[in-house]
Amino acid sequence: MFGGFDSKFYDAYHRMIPKAPGFEKRHKLYQLFHHLNHWNHFGASYRSSSVSIMKSLLK
Q1: DSSP for residue 7
Q2: Is the pTM of this model over 0.85?
Q3: What is the C-alpha separation between 35 and 49, in angstroms, rounded?
Q4: Which enzyme class (predicted)?
Q5: 21-53: b or e for each residue (b if 16 or more CB lie within 10 Å)?
Q6: Helices 23-42 and 47-58 sit at what angle, rounded to 10 degrees?
């Protein structure tokens, strides 16, 4: 949402600590929490990203 670590960091991290089953879905769920929180606090500019994440979780 606000940048953070680059893909090289996460590649190295997951070489040491492999992704557990369901990682991608949990990652989206954690992202959704922050998008919904921002939608609540800052308004409709976060609606689209929140809905998009929700739709991807339902697939």
Answers
A1: H
A2: no
A3: 7
A4: transferase
A5: eeeeeeeeeebbeebbebbeeeeeebeebbeeb
A6: 150
